[in-house]
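Sanity check

After download, print the first record. It should look like this:
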Amino acid sequence: MRLGIFSDVHGNLEALEAVQQAYRQEQIDEYIFLGDAVGYGANPNECCEIIQSLARIALLGNHDAACCGKTDVTCFVNHARAAIDWSLNILTPANLQWLSGLDYQFRKDNLIFSHGSPIQPENFEYVLDSNQAASVFKLMKNASVVFIGHAHYPLTFCHRSDQSTVIFVSMEPKIQLEEGNKYIVSLGSAGQPRDGDYRASYSIFDTEVMLYLSNRVDYDVHSASRKIDEAGLPEILSQRLLVGK
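Expected structure tokens:
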């Protein structure tokens, strides 16, 4: 089965439409969205509706949870909190209801999907280094791969069956997962990458051959940035799109 896995759209309609078009060129059996449909970008309603139509499984991200009153907005930085407040004013009741009904985590066979760390996923913790990854690997009793979003840049960690230490694999776009090992795969962001590449990120995982592909697609980033400015959102949100930071 070929899974189309994407995350962190953040109201960026132009990026999401480009990702959707790119997926049409692939043979995808099922789509899984790892959370944060809203926040930062100027088109939260349109993005919610596309994700609902595309992904059978969609998870709750921390920005989604903030809009639903499921997490404390005071933990967000000022520009993120401003975007949440703005989104709350324009999200439709139907889309708020959809967001409120999303789960924190999904499991499929030996795969786990979560927005942030699968350890208490409602806390939306990051997995950015080997120590944090080691804690997750201890949780993976009957799972071989955990897919997460939240960090906005691609990272892969591996715990080899014959070693006790956790190793950072790479940020390479193509990774062959080896049988018997355990992996944590952190996706890049579709709507607001932070790895220095503004292009939208989307992923494919082939469960039959255990091959993970992290892809990028160009989109009209200037239109997305301009709409953020026109909405009166903080300038940092429009400018960071242009540089992927």
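If your output differs, re-run the checksum step. Summary of this record's structure: The mean pLDDT is 93.
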